[in-house]
């Protein structure tokens, strides 16, 4: 994982436009930058970014009948340093190994839940393990849970 400063470049893969606007506002209020958004696998395939995003928030069910699971695989192949976090109302659809993703923020989520999860993820990526307790709004992948466990 590349060491990022206190703020992150973020890719959002979500087919609900209002949710994307809300996410962008919440994350930018915290100093993060939305570098790209996409609604489907084909839109992620078409992205041309100067640098890999630090974090990709990915819904499971996307436009064009595409799957966030396929998007996660593509992101991990194209930008191995990008941390994938699923945003979904269907966390049971995520395979046990999370396909290399860092975890999931289940929908629906509140502003405070998202920002608490974001701070936890930010700490874990910048200077592991996170200093704060894991918020209920974030379910880490088993491998991340072990790596970020505090002694």
TrEMBL record:
Keywords of the record: DNA-binding, Phosphoprotein
Leader sequence segment: none
Keyword Transferase among UniProt keywords: no
Key word Phosphoprotein present: yes
SUPFAM superfamilies cross-referenced by the UniProt entry: CheY-like
Gene3D superfamilies xrefs: 3.40.50.2300
SMART domains per record: REC
Record-listed 4-aspartylphosphate modification sites: 59
A Pfam family per the record: Response_reg
Highest taxon of the lineage: Bacteria
Protein name: Response regulator
Domain named Response regulatory: residues: 9-122
